[in-house]
Structures are given as C-alpha cells and as structure tokens.
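Course assignment 3, question 2. Fill in each field.
Student: A.L.
Task: Predict the tertiary structure for the chain below.
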Amino acid sequence: MKKIFKIFAFLFLGLNFSVAQQTDSTQAISDDFDFSIKPMSKKGQVFIFWGWNRAGFTNSDIHFEGNGYNFTLENVVAHDRPSDVSWAYVDPGQMSTPQFNFRLGYFIKDNLALVVGTDHMKYVMDQEQTVRFIGNISDPVYAAMVQNGEVDLRDSNFLTFEHTDGLNYVNAGLEKYKPLLSREKIDIMWSYGAGAGVLFPKSNIKLFGNERSDRFHVAGFGLDARANINVILWKHWMARIEGKVGYINMPDIKTTLNNKPDKASQDFFFGQVNFGIGYTFDTHKI
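Answer field:
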C-alpha cells in the first residue's frame, strides 16, 4: 500500500513539477526534438488502451440496513485481489477476469483528449479482523456475535463482503497531453487530468446466512485525478503507466438477491497504478 502511494506521489508531484518547468520551452528540452511530429496530441487523434492494475483502499465505515437490523461496522479494512499470472491476462475469453483497465480517447483539440473507460478493480473485505459495531440486530443468533461493542469477522456466517466482479468504475474525463521526447521511431508523452463516473459493481455479499447477493447494480459515483506516461513506438503502438487517486461513494449496495429493501452503503478513497498497451491513429487519415 505504501509503495503504491509513493508511486502516486512521484507521478502527481515530482513529474508535474519537473516537466512543467522543462516544457515551458521546447528549446530548453533539446534542440534535437521534433515537435512537428506528435502522436497522441493532435485534434482528431484516437487511442485505445487495455491494461491491468493494482489498487489500494482507505478503511471505511459500512452501514447495513434491512428488516430486523440497522448497524454500522466501523473502520473496515479491505484490499484488492489480483489474479495469478496466467493466460487469462491475454486470452480474449478471459481478459476481463483480472483487474483490468480500458480506455478510449479522442482529442477534441490539440493536446486535450476526452477519455472514457472502465476501471475494473476488486475490493475484498479482510475476514481476519475485529471491528467496532454500532446499531442493533433483532435476530438473537447474530446479535450474540456482537461482544463488547465489537464483532469478529473471522466468523464468515456473520458477513462476507466483496466487490470482486468487480468494483467497476465507469468514467469519463479530460486529459491534457504534453511532449517529453520526439524521435523518428519513439515519442514520449505525459498527461494529467480528472474524471467522474458511476460505480457499477457486481457485489458478492452474504449477510446473516441470506442467499448471496451477486449481481450488477448502479451503486453510486466516483471522482478521480490521474497522470500517465505514454511511450509511442513507430507513431502508433503505445505503452502506458498511469497513476490514479480518487473518491468512491456507494449509498445503494445490494445485499440480497430478492426485492427486499436490504442494502449497504460506504465511501472511501482509492489509489490505483495501472499499466498496459494500446494503439493510436489519426482519424483524419482514414
């Protein structure tokens, strides 16, 4: 977790400061740079990107309400769940199984792109924890699991809580691009921007022995800031590493499969590092 946020600090602070100073003048960077050739920068340019991520989440309070209960679990710890390295990362039939990122970008003007995409993260509540309990449960079996204002979540009969298929942040944003290097066969661009979107998780939740909830549902919204570095080879093929930080608020998480009004709510901050490959082209040349 600490390593992830160190990378964010580099991307958002160190890179922004140094590059902003250096790119005030193309002459100050190098007399050899050819800025007349700038893939991923001209109006009408398009790029498509597919990658994978690691994510971290702040602790959060999760509120549950339904027939016979209304309570909050405080300061709940959760982590992501990366898939083991396998053919699933490149198999077209399984590529959506790991934690993945998709981007489609279009330059609405020179150096400014409108980017839409999906961040498929996975959020898994740690079972090995004891948390503070505030509220009430009418069922004596589950009420008895609360001792001295706390509940031990190692007993999974009380609760399992995951967004594992996944914590889907469907978002749109604007990204400002600037050149770092331009050569005959390689270009390096960096960008920064911000976005907003909806959370469309498929939550895997089992509460009090009820039938497990495992369905897609619009649960809330998110906001983010992002920065990335792009290496473009032969004016078309690209590799990207991106850092993103943001806020997620989900007031309507479904906890049962039926039409009962049972639901949960939570909000937290997240950090993400993703990397992958893509392709860019100029629509004016099609």
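Instructor remarks: The chain has three helices and 16 strands. The first strand starts at residue 45 and ends at 57.
Grade: pending
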